[in-house]
Amino acid sequence: MENFNSNQATAVAVSSATSTRCGIDWLRAQALHKQELARFIEKNPRSQALALRAAEHMLFGVPLHWMSDWSTPFPLNISHASGAQVVDVDGHQYLDFCLGDTGAMFGHAPPPVARALAHQAVRGYTAMLASEDAVWVAEELARRFGLAVWQFALSASDANRFVLRWLRAATQRPKILVFNGCYHGTVDDVFVDLVDGVPRQRDSLLGQVTDLTANTVVVEFNDLAALEAALSNRDVACVLAEPVMTNIGMVLPQPGYWEAAQEILRRYGTLLVLDETHTISSGMGGYTREHGLQPDALVVGKPLAGGVACAVYGFSQELARRVEQAKRLAPPGHSGIGTTLTANMLSMTAMRANLAEVMSDAAYAQMFSLADYLAAGLRAVIGKLGLPWCVTQVGARTEFQFSQLAPGNGSAAALILDSELEQVIHLYLLNRGILITPFHNMMLVCPQTQRSDIDTFLAVFEDCLHQLKIRSPE
Questions:
Q1: Where are the chain's structural domains?
Q2: Per mean pLDDT, which range of 164-173, 307-316, 463-472 is the poorest?
């Protein structure tokens, strides 16, 4: 992710002397970007006024610096959101294909969750005590995902962080393994990349004072030989992975990869943790259940409570026994795992309502149908214009990528990223009432998305690409 700053508005115009990129006429892209910046400024005076006020009292002028990652010259301020639509403070309505980058994957403000929150609002928010809703949720998670024992957190970042602590304690192994280009939230341990085949701490990680490469091993996704070599010393506690890489652009597992990878992990006594925070788009039990994977632990975050802060992590029965034993044998005191607001009553009631009434088979069926329609439409537009791009899909999650072939690992995915071109396309869409994620080109559909919404998106998308495409000689 790259933070927007005051210079970024002109970055596209000065960043490249290349006249063509990804089948796009770059000079036309520069000119279009300039026009779209002016259009956004003219259309959004209230957002601009709020941005000026926010600059006085917020870092980077936003509540969270990621909110400056959008393609806009100043932050877009939102008034309200419902279903598949968002309305900004200037009264503009948007078709939302970002959906809070999965946080609102089942639509904004799902009515069952809204009702549950209103009911709980007069019954208390937090007490640092167990509740019946938490018991119901744990039972439902076990049924859906096939892992027996569960714990809660307020974000997938924390859930991943807690799982790594538990598993290092349970195995007495110091190291973890991640895949090059991975993303698992703000867990420091995972900010390690391969640079010319050598593990190196990611330059973007701020304030880190220890050498992460001492205990984080990194290999390429889909490379079974590298995985086996990395685990052969038997000092790796666990592999932490998304079953499909999603945050560097989508990277799908090659056929048979996970079956073989799981066998390698078992051979060397290394545990498998699957982070399903994004790939929960695959179905009720995530990619894990849809594809018959058997992780030792699993993490799911932002969409589980309909957009209310929450996350969960689950263990197999055998691993839960080892984890509990590690805690019982440890000296008394704070484990470094959990926070006071973990499993608060408000989060639990929202999660129960969302699991019981929103995240249903019917909802997924509707989303899959819509995502198929979107992916087919994207391929048709890209093919019609003869662009060397591809489309990748994981359930309700779809992405177009600037390459003829889908990337097979993180290094290949990084090479085809073009944040400047993304900025031009994203801003063009946003100015015409369509939101997609502010980094790479990911789109989600929710149960409230209409086929007519997708048709509108595809028409605007095609118009944008028409303006950018290299013109054939007359």
A1: 8-108+360-468, 111-357
A2: 463-472
| Cβ contact 317:177 at 8 Å | no
Instruction: Quickly name the fold that domain 8-108+360-468 has.
Output: Aspartate Aminotransferase, domain 1 (3.90.1150)
DSSP string, 191-203: -EEEETTEEEE-T
In residues, how long is the chain? 474
Whether 317 contacts 145, CB under 8 Å: no
At 20, which helix (H) or strand (E)? strand 20-21
| pLDDT (tens digit per residue) in 92-128 | 999 999 999 999 999 999 999 999 999 999 999 999 9
Q: How far apart are the C-alpha atoms of 87 and 110, rounded to whole Å?
A: 16
Contact 451, 373 (CB under 8 A): yes
Tell me the Ramachandran region of residue 343: left when phi exceeds 0, alpha when psi lies from -120 to 50, beta otherwise. Answer: left
The angle formed by the CA atoms of residues 448, 452 and 458, to the nearest 5 degrees, is 110
Between CA 284 and CA 276 the distance in angstroms is: 11
Q: 3-state DSSP call for residue 442?
A: strand
Q: Decide if pLDDT at 374 tops 80.
A: yes
**Residue written as tokens 């799908």?**
252
Residue 199, Cβ density class (10 Å: 0-12 exposed, 13-18 middle, ≥19 buried): middle
Pairwise CA distance, residues 376 & 458, whole Å = 10
Which two structure tokens, joined as six digits, stand for 209? Answer: 């004072």
The tally of CA atoms less than 13 A away on the side-chain side of residue 381 is: 21
Which amino acid is present at 312? V
DSSP 21: E
CA distance linking residue 70 with residue 76, whole number of Å: 8
Q: Residues 375, 397: contact at Cβ < 8 Å?
A: no
Contacts 24+ apart (CB under 8 A), 78-85: 81/108, 81/109, 82/107, 82/108, 82/109, 83/107, 83/108, 83/109, 83/446, 83/448, 84/108, 84/445, 84/446, 84/448, 84/449, 84/450, 84/453
SS3 of residue 205 by DSSP = coil
How, if at all, do strands 24-25 and 20-21 pair?
antiparallel
CATH fold for domain 111-357:
Aspartate Aminotransferase; domain 2 (3.40.640)
CB 111, CB 134: distance < 8 Å: no
Handedness of CA 59, 62, 63, 68 (dihedral sign): negative
* Contact predicate 265/231, CB 8 Å: yes
Give the per-residue pLDDT at 19. 72
DSSP string, 230-278: HHTTS-EEEEEE-SSB-BTB-BPPPTTHHHHHHHHHHHTT-EEEEE-TT
**Dist CA 246 CA 103 (whole Å):** 15
